[in-house]
Prior knowledge:
The protein is mostly helical.
Amino acid sequence: MPKITTDSRSAAGQSLYEMMWERLDAYVDALKTGQAEEGDNIRAEELCHILAIFTNPYAPNFMEVRRESTRRWKARKDSVRTAA
């Protein structure tokens, strides 16, 4: 499992939704940088499904969550590049 950036103490103020996005972000980072472990892609897909259900339980849009995870990864990558 990829390293999650916040520990349980700092996650106390986060919603479950935010915590799931953070976990998905960690998996996407690992997958995009070639540091993923076996099964991380499946776990990331499952998190996309879970987040889609959180967002709209009556008509979950898995592909939109997947696209958003890619947008978030690109934004993180770009922010690291501009900070360097």
